[in-house]
Specification:
The protein is α+β, with helices and mostly antiparallel strands and 551 residues long. The chain folds into four domains: 107 residues, Winged helix-like DNA-binding domain superfamily/Winged helix DNA-binding domain (Arc Repressor Mutant, subunit A, Orthogonal Bundle); 30 residues, no CATH class; 118 residues, 3-Layer(aba) Sandwich (Rossmann fold); 145 residues, Tetratricopeptide repeat domain (Serine Threonine Protein Phosphatase 5, Tetratricopeptide repeat, Alpha Horseshoe). The protein is built from 21 helices and 13 strands.
Length: 551
């Protein structure tokens, strides 16, 4: 065992505990990374060394490493980064002193969860011992109780999928869906997964998830019911449908699992926030959010303006409502990505969105909506090192979130990691959740293929995206570039005209994304796209060292 900074790491049991015996949860890769760092205390490990040791023959991006580092720091309460340090340009250093040994095994046989008293409660207890009246401290007792006695995390037991017993196809599909669903749910931090074998060790299930799979004509239906073990009430019912002929077997099982998994992850997120929402009582604000979403679903500038007006007006009437802040910030970021602000208004919208999201993060640091919007903010503002981590955080709340995958892919694109980005966009396409974001990852896949000079593939994805919405017209510009490269001049000019109709006044200069923090590989590839557009007839301006990416 390894001892350091008040923690004990047991490689054989794959456990990390505090020195009082309390178990600290880490996902397998984060545990492997911590073991590697602790075993090499006070030695700098390069990123390549870490990736080779922890992920071995699996190709992953640096964002997987960043996410594991963050998870370790949270587990070790290393908020000031004094245990796991970054050595600029070289790698990571585990700065804690580490000793190896064999402690008394009985100390870890029946661990108990440590309860940390809030400072105000500690003061109250000391006052009581000293004979001082607790009221002297004016403690808000009801608000402290949830922190003193935190509710246990929901523990889910996934029951075998009910499928027609005489149908081997159904059984094979059910097995694949179960594997996909368990793989995704296991990454969500707000819930635990238990089985009959592990219940004795980690505690009993609080909820059962029952799944039913059946075929109706050309469609497969999957239904999930979340049932409270204690009261046997049905808490949640979600359904998803997929065309039996849609893609290969992998796509079918992935989409069915994602359709249910995405909805379940949203429900688990709602469990986390239920108490805060009960306190807010913002019925009018909830209605305003619904109206705003309805206004923006067709993705036009006029509807966008209407949606912003609805949310801005309601926020002025309900300034403390976190849901409104999240919704307005997300909408402003969407407008920035769609280029629906002029320069001055765009800068103001960016400042407003950042302020709203920073407030929301303080109040709901684990909220799916907040993390997703913050992922988008950092992507829109080209803060790529941080956006890799923020988007990974959003995916740790809902691994089937296609919007977060899109923003992660866009970040990878601008870092010059085109193949990684394409894989991320295609992962979102495989899941196909949520519906309203479908056009974004199709656009992303088209862009990545175009930057890789795979023009036919780019056209396929771009045209599918345009069939949902042309957005701000950039997608037509990318279509024009792909056609021109393939020698289809007439189609290229027609696509350019459509893009110009949606973006009056567009020039080579003003359709480009900001170049801040973008990699040389991206700047070079996207500049080639811009030169192609200039050849087709996009009005001239200085050809920037950046390109025609984005929405």
């Amino acid at each position: 065992m390894l001892f350091f900074a008040g923690f004990v790491l047991d490689p054989d049991r794959m456990e990390l505990r505090r020195d009082d015996g309390a178990l600290v949860r880490l996902r397998p890769k984060a545990f492997e990374l911590l073991k590697l760092l602790a075993s090499n205390s006070h030695r700098i490990l390069t990123k390549d060394e870490i990736l080779a040791a922890v992920w071995k023959d699996i190709h992953v991006g640096e964002d997987s490493l960043f996410q594991c580092i963050r998870e370790i720091r949270i587990a070790l309460e290393d908020t000031d980064r004094q245990i796991v340090k970054v050595v600029s340009g070289r790698g990571y250093l585990f700065a804690a002193n580490v000793s190896a040994g064999r402690p008394d095994e009985t100390a870890f046989r029946a661990p108990t969860r440590a309860v940390r008293l809030p400072k105000a409660w500690a003061a109250a207890l000391l006052a009581a011992i000293a004979g001082l009246p607790v009221a002297w401290f004016a403690l808000p007792l009801p608000s402290l109780l949830p922190d003193l006695f935190p509710a246990p995390r929901p523990a889910l037991m996934i029951l075998p999928i009910a499928a027609p017993a005489d149908d081997s196809t159904s059984e094979t599909l059910a097995s694949g869906i179960a594997s996909e669903l368990l793989s995704g749910l296991s990454t969500i931090r707000s819930v635990d997964l238990v089985s009959a074998d592990t219940a004795r060790e980690v505690g009993p299930a609080t909820h059962e998830v029952r799944l039913d799979l059946h075929r109706n004509g050309e469609n497969w239906h999957l239904q999930a019911q979340v049932i409270s073990v204690e009261g046997r009430q049905v808490d949640t019912v979600v359904d998803t449908i997929s065309d039996a002929s849609d893609g290969d077997g992998r796509q079918l099982r992935a989409r069915l699992a994602a359709g249910v998994g995405y909805a379940l992850a949203k429900r688990f997120d709602a469990w986390d926030e239920a108490e805060g929402r009960r306190r807010s009582g913002a019925t009018a604000s909830d209605l305003a959010i619904v109206q705003a979403i309805a206004s923006i679903n067709q993705t036009t500038r006029e509807r966008f303006t209407t949606a912003v007006a609805i949310l801005t007006k309601q926020l002025s009437a309900d300034p403390d409502n976190v849901d409104l802040k999240i919704a307005l910030a997300a909408l402003q970021l969407r407008g920035l990505q769609l280029n629906w602000y002029d320069t001055e208004a765009g800068a103001e919208a960016e400042r407003d969105a950042r302020a709203l999201l920073e407030q929301a993060l303080r109040e709901r640091p684990q909220s799916m909506a907040v993390l997703g919007a913050y992922c988008r903010l950092l992507t829109v503002t080209n803060e790529f090192a941080d956006s890799l981590v923020a988007c990974a955080q959003a995916l740790a709340v809902n691994p089937w979130d296609g919007a977060a995958l899109y923003n992660l892919g866009l970040t990878q694109t601008q870092l010059g990691r085109f193949d990684d980005a394409l894989s991320t966009f295609l992962k979102a396409e495989l899941f196909d959740t949520p519906d309203e974001a479908r056009w974004t990852w199709l656009l992303g896949a088209g862009l990545a293929n175009l930057l890789l000079d795979r023009n036919e593939e780019a056209l396929d994805y771009l045209n599918r995206s345009i069939a949902i919405t042309p957005g701000s017209g950039r997608s037509y510009l990318l279509v024009a570039a792909a056609h021109w490269r393939l020698g289809r001049e007439q189609e290229a000019r027609a696509a350019l005209a459509k893009g110009m109709a949606l973006r009056p006044g567009a020039t080579v200069e003003n359709v480009a994304l900001p170049t801040k923090n973008a990699s040389p590989a991206f700047l070079d590839a996207s500049s080639r796209v811009m030169r192609t557009l200039a050849e087709i007839g996009l009005p001239a301006g200085p050809i920037p060292d950046g390109g025609a990416a984005g929405q």
